[in-house]
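Postdoc handover notes: sequence design on the structure in folder B. Input tokens:
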């Protein structure tokens, strides 16, 4: 079995696909976390009723509710057919893998976890890296072999 990278998923070589990506990525981040915050409201209501059915055990999930909702949101959207979250789609960017394979749910979750871990350790430096690394990639993009490209 050989790997046949699809041109739909492969990272382009043209420099125009990466111009302005870092600023679009920052605005997409803001839009996405507003969406995740809004999705936490119905999730909290559902978790309340689940907690009643489980005789209070569901209440233990409230501290991790934001992490669960964000993980599912980014896993389904980044790992989906558009390879972009709703904020990324609004800003005209998508995430592709350098090796040409499509993004999957697990890679999207690991990307999110690495972002949170590296952001807590290297707070301002994680965004500054995008100014100096080729294709405006951040540190967690380098570790996972992903890149953000313009779609519009």
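Designed sequence:
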């Amino acid at each position: 079995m050989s790997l046949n990278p699809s041109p739909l998923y492969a990272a382009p070589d043209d420099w125009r696909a990466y111009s302005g990506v870092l600023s679009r990525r920052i605005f997409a981040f803001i839009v996405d976390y507003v969406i995740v915050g809004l999705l936490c409201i119905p999730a909290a209501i559902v978790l309340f009723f689940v907690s009643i059915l489980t005789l209070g055990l569901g209440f233990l999930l409230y501290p991790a509710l934001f992490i669960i909702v964000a993980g599912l949101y980014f896993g389904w959207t980044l790992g989906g057919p558009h390879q972009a979250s709703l904020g990324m789609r609004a800003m005209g960017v998508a995430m592709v893998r350098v090796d040409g394979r499509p993004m999957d749910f697990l890679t999207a979750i690991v990307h999110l976890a690495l972002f949170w871990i590296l952001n807590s350790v290297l707070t301002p430096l994680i965004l500054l890296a995008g100014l100096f690394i080729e294709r405006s990639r951040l540190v967690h993009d380098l570790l996972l072999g992903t890149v953000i490209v313009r779609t519009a």
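Context for whoever picks this up: The CA atoms of residues 44 and 62 lie 7 Å apart. Don't rerun without checking with the PI first.
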